Every structure is written in C-alpha cells, then in structure tokens.
Amino acid sequence: MTVTTRRSLLEVRKTLRPNWYRCPIDPAAFRELMEPCDNKGWLQAGGHLVIFCLTGCLTIYLFLEEEWFWLVFSLFFHGIVGSFFKGLAAHELGHGSVFKTKTLNAIFLRSYSIVSWHNFHEYAVSHTYHHRYTLHEDGDREVVLPLEILIKKPLYLLQILTINFTGGPVTSGLIPVVKGTFETAFRGYGESVISKEWSAALYASHPHEREPAVRWARSIIAFHLVVLILAISSDLWILPFVLSFQQFTANWLRYLVGLPMHCGLRSNVNDFRKCTRSITLDPISEFLYWRMNWHLEHHMFAGVPCYNLKKLHKLVAHDMPRVRTLTGAWQEMMEIAQKQKVDPAFEFDTAVPPKKNHNQAIHGTSAESIGDLAPRSLK
Fold it and tell me: 68-103 pLDDT, tens per residue?
C-alpha cells in the first residue's frame, strides 16, 4: 500500500476494530498479575539505572587515568547497557505499569528518555496504535513489514559493534535521532522515534499531541547542550560519550534480541500468537531488555507489568505457540528472508493451538488495557 492511498487515522479508528484473541486465564490470577509493585519497579528501573551509572563512572575514571585500552572496553559495555534505554526502559515506563506510585513512573520515564534522546510523547501516540492494531498495515506503521535483516551487511554489523550512525530496525542511529530531534523541536517531522510519514499522519489526526512532543524535543536538546558545555569547560571530553552518545554505541545486543519480536510474521490477523514472538533469554539480557522477550504475552495483556510477564506465560502456555530460543528465532527469520526473496509477500504462519472460548470474566477493560500509554486524544 503506498503512502498516497493511506486512509486517515481518524477513519481507521472508526472502521478498523480487530477482535483480538486473548487466551483464557483465571480472573483472580490475572488481577494479581496486573498489580504493579514499587519494590519490583525499583529493582528493574533503579537497578538498570545503577548499572548505567557504574559503567559510566568507570568510563570517566579510565579516561582520567588515561587507560585507553580499557576505556574502549568500558565504553563498549556502557553502550550495551545504555542502548536499552530508548524505546525499552522508556517504553515500559510509558505504559505506567512499572511502579504502583505514578509519580515514580513519571520521574523514571523522563530520566530515561532525556538521556537517550527519546521523545516519549511522540512514541506514546505511535505505540498506542501499534498495540491496538498490531501489524495491521492501516493502523500500525510503527512496525512495517517486511523488516530487512541488516546484520548480513558488513557496514551495518560494524556500526552496531561500534557507533551506529545510520540506525535501523530496533536500533538508534546518531544521525537520524539527533537530526530528527532538532526537526521535531522546530515543528518539523523528524525521525528520532518514528518515520516522517508516520509522524505526519499521527499529527494530522491528533494535532493536540504535537506541542508536548515539541517541548520535550527542546528539553532533550537543552540537556545535551549542557552536557557538551560541561565537557568543554572541564576538559572532560568523555562526558558526551557517557551521557549523550551511549544510545548509539555497541547496540548489537539490542538488535539481536529486539528484531525477532515481529520480523517475518503475519500481518492483518487478529491473533497476537501469529504476529508476535516470545523468546527465551539469559537472565542478564532479559533484565536489560525489561522482560520484553515475553513479547507475545505483553501484546496480549499489555497492562501486566514487565516483571510479571514470565508468570503470565506459565499460566497461558498451554494456549500459546512454542517459545523460540534466540538462536531458533534468528534461524527462523533467516529462512523467512530467503523465502521472501522468491515471494516478497510471504509471511510465516506460526502454528498455534485451536482458539478457546474467551474468558468473559476478564476479556473486557482490564484485558484490553495498555496501561497509561494512550494520550488523551486516543483514550
């Protein structure tokens, strides 16, 4: 479908109403899983931030001690940790489901977002559509299939192992993100979060959401200008690499675990089991990824806090497809990519158990909740 034939999003909201299949689940157990916990929120959000601060302080220390060899390794690991801020830490905090105390959600959301050049206002509008119309091409242009597997290109592989200048699916590129932030700040259509075409479509239908995004883009620029001024005035040239460029450094792990979530799967279906993957990860990667490897469970019940997704999976596993391993998911995607070379319209049809009767006790507002993600104009 070309850009010129796209329907307006206001029309899409009136006519496109996917009747999503959700696995039956015990209502009492579901209510318990939906409950946020401040202690678990501190462990996830606070823990990730502490690791970021530790790797950042180590990087600054090695710079001051002129330990150049070890500095490279420190920057590498600091980049790995920081690359999961934009669209992941900020994503889950944007749902408002990490902390029971809403003020803590708001504080951490802004902290993670400003450091990672993440415009959470613009993302909230886009991601609301992504959840409500997952991979329906009229309503979800945040993820547009087919997704190209760029890791097969040597230049892109080099970028995700060093500094990513151009970006790509699920990774942040220095040039499009910084350029896009400035464009948004001056009321243009930037690519710091989403494509220009998608940004223009969203704001055409939801003009009142534009001003908060503009103000936040200006706040991001102001923050990183202050970082640059501090670096110049103190001769601490490593500071921008710790607080401004970490989002674009060594984002290879972010790419490896993030791309499988929708790549190669079915579009325009009303069953999350066919358009979303869950994968198993080691505990460290799962923590940095904010448990979004349980992505199918997240889409099916988006109001469940990330730290409860594994428990949710165990309750509905009998009605879910087989969970892929990381290597299994990549092997599957590579095979799909080969088939798409012959047939560009090919999509992998995941084998799933037969649909069961919806559990009417929970398949209402709570089950369909996406937390606090939706802006006022999309409530």
Answer: 999 999 999 999 999 999 999 999 999 999 999 999
Domain membership flag for residue 27: no
Q: Do 128 and 5 form a contact (C-beta atoms < 8 A)?
A: no
Does this model's pTM top 0.90? My answer is yes
Total domains in the fold of the chain: 1
Task: Using the structure block, give the residue that is written with the tokens 């674009």.
Answer: 248
* 146 domain residue, yes or no: yes
Decide if 277 contacts 262 (C-beta within 8 A).
Answer: yes
pLDDT > 60? residue 298: yes
The alpha carbon of residue 212 and the mean position of all alpha carbons in its chain are separated, in whole angstroms, by: 20
266 inside domain: yes
- CA–CA distance, 276 with 287 (Å, rounded to integer): 20
Can you spell out the DSSP letters for 85-134?
IIIIIHHHHHTT-S-SSHHHHHHHHHHHHHHTT--HHHHHHHHHHHHHTT
Domain span at residue 322? 35-378
**How confident is the model at residue 5, as a pLDDT?**
63
pLDDT digits (tens, 9 = 90+) for 239-274: 999 999 999 999 999 999 999 999 999 999 999 999
Task: Let me know: does 119 contact 184? Beta carbons within 8 Å.
Answer: yes
Residue 11's CB is within 10 A of a number of other CB atoms, namely 12
- The packing angle between helices 309-316 and 27-34, to 10°, is 170
Domain for residue 29, yes or no? no
Burial 44-78 (b: 16+ CB within 10 A, else e): bbeebbebbeebbebbbebbeeeeeeebeebbbbb
